[in-house]
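ok so for the tutorial part 2 we go from a plain amino acid sequence to predicted structure tokens. step 1 is just haveing the sequence, like this:
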Amino acid sequence: MEKNIKKILETLENEGYQAYLVGGYVRDYLLGVTSFDVDIATDALPKDIHRIFNSSKNNYGSVNIKVDKLNVDITTFRKDLNYVNRRPSKVVYINNLKEDLERRDFTINAICMNKNGKIIDLLNGCKDLDRRTIKMIGSIDVKLKEDPLRIMRAIRFACILDFKIEDELYEKIKEYKNSIDVLTMTATPIPRTLHMSIVGVRDMSIIYEPPQNRKPVQTYVLEYDEEVVKEAITKELERDGQVFYLYNNVEGIERKANEILKLVPEAKVSYAHGKMSGNELENIMLDFINGETNVLVCTTILESGIDIPNANTIIVENADRLGLAQLYQIRGRVGRSDAQAYAYITYKRDKLLSEVADKRLKAMKEFTEFGSGFKIAMRDLEIRGAGSMLGEIQHGHMEQVGYDTYCNLLDQVIKEMKDIPQEEEEKDVQIDLNVSSYIPDSYITDSSQKIKIYQDIALCRTEEDIQNIIDEMIDIYGEIPAEVENLLNIARIKSLAKKLHIFRIQQKANGVVFSFEGESFKFDIVDKLLKEYRNKIKFSPGKDPYITYKIEELSDDKILFSIKEFLKFLCEN
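step 2 — the prediction. this is what the tokens look like for a chain of 573 residues:
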């Protein structure tokens, strides 16, 4: 056990909490394999973990901290309840280690280790490790019903570890194979594909475990500098490695190859691009594979289908012109052995980057650990938008209808296609207030979690629903900032407005306007309002009557409080 990992366990214990290494790290340790998949289970709540380690990174309820070059996920003991679309709809924090282990998939991934290196094996994982067997924890039917794609995890572990699948599980897999028609595997799904998975059109399962002995690619995002390029190439050649140099300009690629040769005279440089004939490309690649050349200058033909373990440095010129998923794929061409790999993502010196390009490069710099493909894809979705579900457009935002409306429309279509009975359509309330209501990046950094919270808030119908979200956010992310409080209060306002058949709440210069559905408006409330609020309200009858409520210039939270109290008065009278 590394000293820095042991220190984390000791820190948690010194604070009065249980703490154990669990999962892939312990499994690989017992198999004598180096692991970079570090998971710690503890009875400390997320807010306590944040406090102890001063971290704000969250990954699906786990707190992520960086120790040297390792990413460590610290997860509170928990039970996962009521799976919907392969994800638990509710998480309950507990203080019992065994109950936490029982929610996991296979026994070999449920072995624990304490700070002293003692193995705690409550579910007989060591026995199955000795038998080299993949065995499911608990009921196979229940586990596969929760997430049928655990089948893929079982097959993957069996392949990479050279283990057999337990007979009972194997027979269940044969039964379940009929429930999957098409399986798509990708490191970086396009925005539309990812969004289809998020909203339930497709099922999705995420594999975070890297191949054995792999190391994360060290990534540098910087302005182009010849000296840095020269040093990077020289350093790789000195260890008998090879270099990819991505220059995505066919017309200038020969000139660039000559520039590299002048910069590093000892290098054996070749170049390749998509306008070459098949035979010419094949010969160039064979020369590179056989080590006859050691620097390959090429266009984005390198993006996929290239697997050369000895090539462990890549330099990308004018990276700001490339897409985020594209950059991730390109970086993945190196680091395909147990050697440390390096990626230099460069852009022109003193160039003013566009907002989108800046976001892409920052994402490449931020997401370097194993399993980053999904995070990269989520960031790409955030930057480019989800595109068209029923058309050919693969990205783009849906500003014209709004995300909530878009998801509601999509949900209706999905239910129709699946012959799921539709509930009576509930009219939405249009709220237009001049208040700051959003989830800041400083509070929730993970894009997928942020989208989930937005969706959960949008679906709130009662105060209990809102309180459940508040409890979840405080437990996982800490104290709620003012902007999120405003978002929750708007959800409360929307709930009250629906009861009163208000279809629009709009802030104007002269106050806040509440528009009612005409046939449902109770006119006897007007007298009570005039007595209570006097000259602060103005009533306008008509087909769709409305009330204007004059509110003084107040802070965001006080405006929302005034509106909420006004609606409560209407509900009570």
